[in-house]
Amino acid sequence: RPRSHTVTTTSSSFTANLSASSSTLAYDREFLRTPPGLLMVTEIVLGLLVWTLIAGTEYFLYPAFGWVMFVAVFYWVLTVFFLIIYMTMTYTRIPQVPWTTVGLCFNGSAFILYLIAAIVDASSVTKELDSHNYNSWAASSFFAFVVTSCYAGNTYFSFISWRSRTLQ
């Protein structure tokens, strides 16, 4: 006796929404004109300068410069990551993440650790240590303090944004 085969298909609204929403990426060009956007670009450019000035020396012989390299490269990569998130407006597609809190924690930790790294960098620069690398280390120390001030500014703007979200 022949069997009857019935096939039932269902469509999930989640997959329909996902395919519709991920087809185009938004691009927020105006973000680069805001104070936090300008500070992020400055952090990326000067942070790159900090770690390349150190990377061009024999920093691995001195643990203090290894710490500065770690902080500089770590926060450089994360800042590039966050710039991409803000430029592509990815934060609007992931509303489960408390982005104002994440931004405040990121910028606050970057400020504190970069301040420590800048102080370590400045206190480790001596001509007696290695006169061949003195200028690179001195320049990296200067730029580390400039990047620290940029992260301090972004921490301020993140705090203002976080504060306005928590008061709502």
From TrEMBL:
Domain of life: Eukaryota
Molecular-function annotations in GO: structural constituent of myelin sheath
Subcellular location: Membrane
Transmembrane helix found in the keyword field: yes
GO biological process, one term: myelination
Pfam assignment, any one: MARVEL
The keyword Kinase is annotated on this UniProt entry: no
GO annotation, cellular component aspect: membrane
Keywords from the named record: Membrane, Transmembrane, Transmembrane helix
Membrane topology: Multi-pass membrane protein
Domain named MARVEL: residues: 31-163
Broad class of the protein's primary localization: membrane
Transmembrane segments: 37-54, 60-85, 97-117, 137-159
PANTHER family according to UniProt: CKLF-LIKE MARVEL TRANSMEMBRANE DOMAIN-CONTAINING PROTEIN 8, MARVEL-CONTAINING POTENTIAL LIPID RAFT-ASSOCIATED PROTEIN
Protein name, as recorded: CKLF8 protein
Biological source species: Nyctibius bracteatus
